[in-house]
Amino acid sequence: MTANVLILCTHNSARSVLAEGMLNHWASRLGKPVRGYSAGSAPSGRVNPFALDALARAGIDTAGHRSKSWDEFTGPGAPPISIVITVCDSAAGETCPVFFGGAGGPPVKVHWGYPDPSNAEGGHDGKLRAFELTRQALGYRMLQLLALPIGDMSRAELRQALLAIGEN
How many CB atoms lie within 10 A of CB 11? Predict the structure, then answer.
């Protein structure tokens, strides 16, 4: 059975898209039954070009990436979500969306905050660097997630393991 992971950020234009791309890339490469999705509570309607560039430079196909509402994951026909990860930077005063779940019961929810690379200083080069560093950091956490025996863990064990990943 595939574990579906929903990564949320308010606008679904940068961090959540990077996380979705990295999770699906590594899950495919490692043959893991995990599928990542991203969404936002107030989607911008466009993916940040720096996010697409960071993924493309890592060899990840960006053709299917789009900014979408979390409403797509709450109605009939939505994939059952096992894990929800918010990636907003609550330390910077961002309000992270709260996802109440869809089909299949309540998911395990955790927060892995990241500063918004869209706000990086240093012009074009500063943004390129910030998006690349965010992509790498998210990719590392996605590899740790994929190392977990998700199907063999209780909800409490999974939540604790995901919280520990977020503290690294």
Answer: 23
The percent of residues above 90 in pLDDT, for the chain, comes to 73
Domain boundaries, the chain: 3-163
Question: Which of 6, 88, 108, 138 does the annotation list as catalytic?
Answer: 88
According to DSSP, the residues that pair with 38 across neighbouring strands are 7
Q: Specify the pTM.
A: 0.92
Q: Tokens for 70, please give them.
A: 């979390």
Could you tell me the CA-to-CA distances from 164 to 120, 148, 159 in Å, in that order? 27, 12, 9
Count helices and strands in the chain by DSSP H and E runs: 4, 4
On the question of pLDDT at 4 being above 50, the answer is yes
pLDDT in tens, 97-130: 566 665 556 889 999 999 999 999 999 999 999 9
CATH topology of domain 3-163: Rossmann fold (3.40.50)
- Look up 168 and say whether it is catalytic: no
> 9, 18, 34, 165: which one is catalytic?
9
- What's the rounded Cα separation, in Å, for the pair 84 and 134? 19
